[in-house]
Design brief:
The protein is an alpha+beta fold and about 240 residues long. The protein has two domains: about 110 residues; about 100 residues, no CATH class. It is built from six helices and eight strands. It has a four-stranded antiparallel beta sheet, with no helix packed on it. Strands 2-7-6-5 form a four-stranded mixed beta sheet, with no helix packed on it. Helix 5 runs antiparallel to helix 6.
Length: about 240
């Protein structure tokens, strides 16, 4: 479904029009629903990392390093950081190991004392919206410009008002489930003005979401099953 169709269907579900359900309100709710659906798919999909198909580039970010600085912020649209690498002074990328800072603290080492000498980072930790490198980069050991690479998953490529006017953009997940955005956008309006429609919308949202989750759960059909030994219980 195109965004224009999604909005038209959302209004039809609750007998609304552009006067009773304003363009700005319905677009906001469609985008909330869009991000919610993409969030569910990212949380679900472990083998093939889900990404909104509207993006035209892979989710890889580069950041310039600062000598002696451990902490680097990342954009809030990065829902999941999958890995990070650092570029050394000879132009080779080094994959960083993810570590848990709380385990360091529990071992009795203050974080300010851990990997205290600047050098070539070998590990990173995630803290709020920061990536923390260990050790901090030394200028002589790394390539500073775009020397930090982060692999991530991002939120939905949400719709803009201009795209609603154009009306041709589609959601970046499987088309049989686009109707979810219409239903999820219709639900808040129904709660306020059409309460008799709420049970139907809730039932349909739950049904279609289950079908979508089932679909994405078996999507990696080209992956080979791996046979493993299984212990035998003699009890």
């Amino acid at each position: 479904m195109h965004i224009a169709d999604i909005i038209t269907e959302a209004r039809k579900l609750v007998d609304a029009d552009s006067t009773s359900y304003l363009d700005a309100d319905i677009l906001r709710r469609v985008n909330i629903a869009y991000e919610e659906v993409v969030g569910k798919l990212i949380a679900l999909d472990k083998n093939w990392n889900f990404g909104d198909s509207n993006y035209t580039s892979l989710p890889t970010g580069l950041k310039t390093l600062t000598a002696g600085t451990k902490e680097y912020t990342f954009d809030s649209t990065l829902l999941t950081i999958m890995g990070a690498s650092v570029l050394d002074d000879s132009g080779l990328w080094h994959t960083l190991s993810l570590i848990d800072e709380m385990e360091i603290v529990k071992s009795g080492i203050d974080l300010a004392e851990y990997e205290k000498t600047d050098g070539l980072p070998w590990a990173y930790a995630k803290r709020e919206n920061f990536i923390v490198l260990y050790p901090a980069p030394a200028a002589a050991k790394v390539t500073v410009t775009n020397g930090l690479k982060v692999y991530f998953q991002r939120t939905a490529d949400v719709f803009t008002a201009a795209q609603v006017t154009t009306g041709t953009k589609t959601p970046g997940f499987a088309s049989p489930y686009h109707i979810l955005l219409s239903m999820k956008a219709a639900l808040p309006y129904a709660i306020s003005y059409k309460p008799e429609r709420v049970p139907y919308l809730l039932n349909e949202i739950n049904r279609i979401e289950k079908e979508m989750i089932d679909f994405y759960s078996i999507r990696g059909k080209d992956e080979k099953a791996v046979m493993r030994n299984r212990g035998i219980s003699f009890r």
